[in-house]
Every structure is written in C-alpha cells, then in structure tokens.
Specification:
By secondary structure, this protein is mainly α. Helices cover 76% and strands 0% of the residues.
Length: 381
C-alpha cells in the first residue's frame, strides 16, 4: 500500500539572503522617512512645527494613552497567536505561536501590502514543526479569516457611521478618492473571500482542478508538479478543517476580530492621550481605521510605508487642530504599529534563519544518506 505523503511534504530550502535581505529592510524605512521629511517641509511653510512639538504635553493622561496603545498592540499579537494555536489544534506552544506571529508581521513590514505576511507564513509554521503541506493550507485559512473580517465588519461600520464623517465632509478630491478606492477594494475582497471559502471549505477539488489547469500553461509548466502537490495538500487539510465543530470557527474568528480591533484601537488610544478634547470623535476615529486599512491593501510600498503616514495625517486632518499635530500623531502611530515590529524582526530573524537553515540542511543530509542506502539495497537485490 502506497503511503500518503500529502501532509508530510518537506518545505523548500530557505535562502535567508533573498528572503530577508538588507535592502528589503532599509527600503520601507527610507520611503517612510522620505515622505515624513517632505510633509515636515511642506507643513513648515504654514506653521512652526517646533512649536507644535513643544505643545505636546506629556501629562499622566498622555502616558496612559501611550501605555494603552502598547497594550492594544499586545492584544493584536495575542489574538493572532491564539488563532495559530487553535488552527494547529494546540500543536504550537504559546512561545512558538508568538514567534510565528512576529515573523509574519515582520514580513508584512518588508513586503508590499498586497503580498502581506502570509506569503511566507507556511515556512514559519513549518520551522515550528508543522508539516509544510498542512502549514500552507492553514495559512490560506488565516488569509480567509482576515478577508472575512473585512467582508463582515466594513459594511457594518459604514452603515453605523454617517458618510460625511467616515469619508470626510465636503467635496474634496481626497474624500471622493477614499470613497471610490474603498468600495473598489472592498468589492475585490468580497470576490476573493468567496473564492477562498469555496476552495478551503466547500469545494477544495474545484480549486485543485483550477490550479492544475493554470499550471498547464506553457510558461508555468515547470512548476506544475509543485502546484499539483499543493492541490493535494489543500484537499487533505481541507478535510480536517471541514470536520471541525462550529465552536472551532467561533474561536479562530474571535481571535481574528480581537486582533484587528486591537490594532485599530491603537489610534483611539493615541487620540485619547494627546487630544483628550476630541473624545466625542472616538467612534469616527475607530471607523476610519477600517477605511485606512482597506485602502492600504493596494499599497505598492513595503508595509504601506510613505502612503500610511500621508494618509493618516490627511485623513484625520479635519479632526486634529493642526496639520503639524496630525503629522506627529501619524509618526507615533507608525512607531508603535510598524517600526516596533520592524525592530523586533531584525532582532529575531537572524537566529530563526540560522536554526531553520541548519535544520533543513540536516534533513537534506539524512535524506541523501537514506536515498544512497535504498539505492544500494536495490542494487544488491
């Protein structure tokens, strides 16, 4: 009887220099700093930014707001780590789940927003002991859950928030551009989520057949075997996911909601700390985060660098008293939600690469020895 290796497919070799090269780390930093410098220069013509900085009063409420922002970022990581633990049936320990989460977030920081951290998530899961085929489909499940979050909550937030508040008031180009981009991207998310639902939950065989047809094209044919293996692994793991009870999906979607809500509430915490007089805007501040992140999904820059800072300062400009203050808040927001993870990634990636590459080489050496042994036995017989 032939053994089924669908879920034990080995991971491809990891080239650390290509995966996390120095330029991929420096590029988003350069773009972000360049845009911030331009905005400082632009706003300096209209107001004294040094005076704006001095006007930032670091009161006890300010420190409470900053602490709350960091707590919300921990909530983001806790939600995603909980989701990884649940998806893997607690095969991952908490420490391993947090490491996978941080590695995925770091990947999101150094890749375009349309690519995201899930593009290498299966490698990170595999490095923690999850079979590569299963890890691939589990990461597709996380992608489905993230997209489902936007499909469910974006219309709710738009419905509960007046249009002139969530998309800004007036007939400005920014207001019209935000509205159009938001609904176009949301439509794409809705279609993509429907495809993922059919492929992962309802009709995995359909996705496998589609992948097979696509990779029969002449310019994709060299990856046909790998694509077929991916399709087999998807079907095998999909059976496991479809067999999970309703409570399982409540947990993993609950972790997804906790993660995204926590990420969005970071901005509320910053406004609470630095602009307490704007407490009446807290709901609008939160609702606008949904628009920001949907728009950033089509950002061509790594981690949305540059576009994030500009969009934040412009989008919240009608709430914040001055453009300089909006820019200061945008910088603080990016430090907490982006540059912090970039720094954490720089600290943990070298060790992860050393251990992962070493493990893959050890496995390769054992496999080579086993193959030679099998060939010798075949020759003797």
């Amino acid at each position: 009887m032939e053994k089924n290796n669908n879920l034990s497919q080995p991971a491809p070799d990891v080239d650390g220099k290509k995966l996390f090269s120095i330029w991929k780390i420096l590029l988003p930093i350069a773009i972000g700093l360049g845009v911030v410098a331009y905005m400082f220069w632009r706003d300096a013509e209209n107001e004294n930014l040094a005076h704006v900085w001095k006007s930032l009063e670091f009161t006890p409420r300010t420190w409470q707001g900053g602490g709350l922002a960091l707590l919300f970022m921990f909530g983001r990581d806790f939600g995603l780590s909980w989701r990884f633990r649940t998806l893997t049936n607690r095969q991952l320990r908490w420490g391993q789940a947090f490491k996978v989460d941080l590695l995925c977030e770091f990947t999101s920081c150094v890749t375009p927003s349309a690519v995201g951290g899930s593009s290498f998530g299966m490698i990170f899961l595999n490095s923690q002991g999850i079979e590569f085929g299963r890890a691939t489909t589990l990461m597709m499940a996380t992608l489905f859950l993230d997209e489902l979050f936007f499909v469910v909550f974006c219309p709710i937030m738009v419905f509960l928030t007046p249009a002139h508040e969530i998309f800004m008031s007036g007939d400005s180009a920014l207001s019209h551009g935000l509205r159009l981009t938001f609904w176009l991207v949301y439509s794409g998310i809705f279609i993509w989520t429907s495809i993922l639902y059919m492929g992962i939950i309802r009709r995995p065989g359909w996705i496998r057949g589609l992948i097979g047809k696509i990779f029969k094209w002449r310019w994709l044919r060299k990856w046909q075997n790998s694509a077929e293996t991916l399709g087999d692994n998807m079907i095998a793991t999909s059976k496991e996911l479809r067999a999970r009870p309703f409570g399982f999906w409540v947990k993993v979607f609950g972790g997804t909601v906790l993660s995204w809500f926590s990420r969005y509430l970071v901005v509320n915490a910053l406004f609470l700390g630095f602009l307490p007089q704007d407490d009446q805007w807290q709901w609008v501040i939160f609702a606008r985060e949904f628009v920001i992140w949907v728009v950033l999904m089509v950002s061509p820059t790594p981690g949305g660098s540059g576009l994030s800072e500009w969009l934040f300062s412009e989008y919240y400009g009608d709430i914040v008293p001055t453009a300089g203050m909006a820019l200061m808040l945008a910088i603080m927001w990016r430090i907490i939600s982006y540059y912090l993870y970039l720094g954490i990634g720089v600290a943990i990636v070298p060790g992860w690469l050393r251990s992962t590459v070493g493990r893959f080489r050890s496995k390769g050496a054992k496999q080579s020895t086993q193959n030679k042994s099998d060939n010798n036995e075949s020759g003797e017989s």
